[in-house]
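Residues pack. One example:


***
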Amino acid sequence: MTSFLRYEQQGHIVTLTMNEPQRRNPLTGNTAVADFLEAIDRIHRDTSVRAVDTSVRAVIITGAGTAFSSGGNIRDMERQASGQVPGMEIRQDYRLGIQRLPLALFNLEVPVIAAVNGAAMGAGLDLACMCDMRIASEQAQFAESFVKLGIIPGDGGAWLLPRVIGLARAAELIFTGQVIDARQALEWNLVSRVVPPDQLLPTANELAGRIAANPPHAVRLAKRLLREALHTRLDTLLELSAGFQALSHQTSDHREAVSAFLDKRKPEFTGS
């Protein structure tokens, strides 16, 4: 079976391309979740400070063809709607399937950019929300379309979407299932910028390059703080920040940054 996910690395940047364009890159009914989990594990393991040229410092997720991701596979839903599949089996299918993806991406310390090239529907929109940043092609469209199929966001969308665009607008998308275009997504802060289609990946790579130019340990720890801040108290976050800062002050990259600033030269970070 052809892999759903294409893994490509150039320098410190990994691009993960959903590569089932003929079916608009669905996230179920194929190897999508397993491929994402394998790629995330590969990125986690690529942390050697001695292999500077191959260490991953930023990730881009995009789709091949005209869609980012159509979300769930309708044929899977047909089976689940048949009445022949026990409810507890469906529950396990979610828990051991698509629900592993938001947890894995949430815990990936490397910053992730969604380069949304086309339609991001249902779980496809939620996948974009699992990323840290979103850039959209002018041809992109977005919908939290579960309600149109008589179901609910089963992959964490009800947790993810309000944290990106706010509760009221998330409720509007979830309750109506409406489709919004890239410009409205920009107005609602669902994406940070909208670019012509031929500029999508160059723009994502430029942003990834600016991230990758910074000390990787500091970036990863900063991302972890942002993630923890979503669900913890201020005093707890401050305590965690103190510990992370103590670690950061002991890195070679911190010493290099201070030295380069005082010497008025460009720093050279090694990830150590």
The chain has two domains: 5-212, 216-263. The domain at 5-212 is CATH 3.90.226.10 (2-enoyl-CoA Hydratase; Chain A, domain 1). The beta strands are 5-10, 13-18, 58-63, 67-69, 112-116, 119-121, 133-137, 141-143, 179-181, 193-195. Residues 48-53 have pLDDT under 50 and may be disordered.
